[in-house]
Amino acid sequence: MIGKVLLVDDEAHITRNLEKVIPWEMLGLTVAGVAKNGVEALQLMEKESIQLLLCDIRMPVMDGLELVRQIREREMPCDIIMLSGYQDFTYTRAAIQYGVNDYVLKPIPYDELTGVIARVMAGQRNKQKQLQEEQQKLGRMIDLASEKILYDIIMDYADFSGSHWLFSGDEHQLKLQQFVMIVLDLDVSSESTKDWRDWSDKERKLWNFAVCNVLREKLQNNGLHHAVIQTRDGEWCVLIETGKSMSFNAEVIQGWAEMLLSAVRNHVKLSLNAGIYRQFAKVEELSQAFKLVQMGLQLAPAHDAITFYPADQQGTTGADQAFWVTAEKLISAVKRGDGAAVDLEVDNISRQLQLMNEQGGARVKPLLHFFVLHLMREMKEMSVFPREQEELLWRRLDHRFGIKDLLTFIRQVTNAVAERSMDKKKQSENSIAEAKTFLDRNLYRDLSVEEAATHVGLSTSYFSLLFKQTFGETFIEYVTRQRMERAKGLLAESQKSVAQIAREVGYAERRYFTKVFMKYTGDNPSDYRSKFQAPGKES
């Protein structure tokens, strides 16, 4: 990119010589204009973006030092080289004080000036490169932080509507975005996925990790700003940000889904199904949209590899949806360890199925079978069963037995959970206590919910649920709050710089830390420190 230089001197022969003698093109510059004084120079700079200013000190109307002072005051971003025939240290000192890059005495040694310009422009290019790298790094950090927040929103663990303090800095843009939602799912009832059940937890984690990487790489290579969120073992929610002006083009979005399925098939050798939410979703709609797509994928007795949900034809009936709502209540009760609620919802399911059966519903048996699969996957996330018992249940489920047998199976699963609930509750309390200790020791690192869950041997989704139940806030809320409280203490009591404190509480990027801190406290770090420390102590 060619930069622009402005020449300012009241002696016309000097500006003419500068235009002709200096090899501007070789230096990556072009002369954008010439001015006889500071007033004319400011007028030109208000119209054009200038990267370099060559300026005499003594000029009529407005001299060079006043011009430089006004440029800095107006925060016009340009480098400045002063030209003067006066060898007076007062001028040099004032020029340095205003942030002049260099100072060349007249008569102008053009070879020396060319070298000075080359050095200044090289420094400028290095700064631009560094800034771009920092912005890219900050962008990756924001994407990662946004992904953590989006996970909690999708799973309905938190409501980040309104002015929640976690929407700091660029993350508040999430509230303004609209998303394409694609849910990718492994059909655990198919013959091709039986091996998946036999894999160890370590093998499945590696496999899930590989799928996430493939999806992210494919989306990034196609220039799609995205989040890839693993919602449970064998299930992912892909969110793709779209512009406000974009209309919902089903053909284009189906093409994206085909691209993702093909990438997973080619690189991980697995076939997934894709459910696409039928319209754009805003942040506050993500949880409901996800539930609708997940319900569609689970309830469909047979569907294409890619399907839009809610289906506009041959879709789920009202009875199907009512059944699924009850089923979700049952799973929620199981997760809470609420035995009375479990019994109530099992009875409700029995009544609903009986009514559907009396009305000639051919859907009853497949509907119930798909729910049992869903229940088993959720219980697997909770690590409810020993490996042997889980294998036995999967083998039983492979046989398509009758409605009565399926209901018996549901009671068997829920009763097994209830029997283990007391031990499980104590174990869960110990796991969360261990997780808290782990988090408090590692706040200085970029912690993920997946890492914390793995540390205590729980699945990400179950760990997130337990964490919210225990602390009343999500993992990311807790970690960020602890970091901010620690930062407040360090700012109030220590002489460490803001950048040092940012690193100590887990933020590699000072600007991002500052944005989060301001959203959390209402003050920037320096102003917060000044409330607790006397002037002159601030670092």
UniProtKB/TrEMBL annotation:
Q: Which SMART domains match?
A: HTH_ARAC, REC
GO process annotations (BP) = phosphorelay signal transduction system
CDD domains (alphabetical): REC_YesN-like
PTM 4-aspartylphosphate: list the residues.
D56
Which Pfam families does the annotation name? Answer: HTH_18 (PF12833), Response_reg (PF00072)
The record's keywords, sorted A to Z, are: DNA-binding, Phosphoprotein, Transcription, Transcription regulation
Q: Where is the Response regulatory domain?
A: 4-121
Q: Any idea where the HTH araC/xylS-type domain is?
A: 433-531
Q: Which GO terms describe its molecular function?
A: DNA-binding transcription factor activity; sequence-specific DNA binding
Question: What protein is this chain from?
Answer: Response regulator
Q: Which organism is it from?
A: Paenibacillus soyae
